[in-house]
Amino acid sequence: MNYVYLLKRVDSDKYYLGFTTDLKRRFYEHNNGYGCKTTKGYRWQLVYYESYLTEELARKRETQLKNNRGSKRALYKRLDILK
Q1: Domain with 7 in it
Q2: Are 7 and 38 in contact (CB under 8 A)?
Q3: Rounded Cα gap, residues 12 and 44, in angstroms
Q4: For residue 83, what pLDDT band results from cuts at 50, 70 and 90?
Q5: How crowded is residue 49: how many other Cβ atoms within 10 Å of its Cβ?
Q6: How do residues 37-63 score in pLDDT, each as one tens digit?
Q7: CATH code for the domain of 38
Q8: Which of 6, 23, 39, 81 has the fewest CB neighbours in a 10 Å radius?
């Protein structure tokens, strides 16, 4: 399975959007300082994820959310975290 996920920093209102093929492993890595400078050194909580059958679909969705403010805003509004 392939996942697009949204993390929230425990100590602030900062969010991180990412893609992975193993959500459990990747969440562990974020919280233990592996692999990503942006998330290193902070505690995170998983607030949302979407699953996809193919990597191509998941990567397209991640790109859409990262590059299209309207798509990201719609997701944040649905999750009631709109800034």
Answers
A1: 2-78
A2: no
A3: 10
A4: low
A5: 14
A6: 888 889 999 999 999 999 999 999 999
A7: 3.40.1440
A8: 81
Closest by Cα among 69, 68, 31, 65 to 49: 65
Beta strands at 44-52 and 15-20: parallel, antiparallel or unpaired: unpaired
Instruction: Tell whether 69 is covered by a domain.
Output: yes
- In this structure, are residues 36 and 75 in contact, taking their beta carbons and an 8 Å threshold? no
Identify the residue with better confidence: 80 or 82: 80
72 falls within a domain: yes
Q: Please indicate, yes or no, if residue 83 is contained in any of the structural domains.
A: no
What does the pLDDT read at residue 22?
A: 97
Q: pLDDT by residue (tens digit) across 11-42? A: 999 999 999 999 999 999 999 988 788 888 89
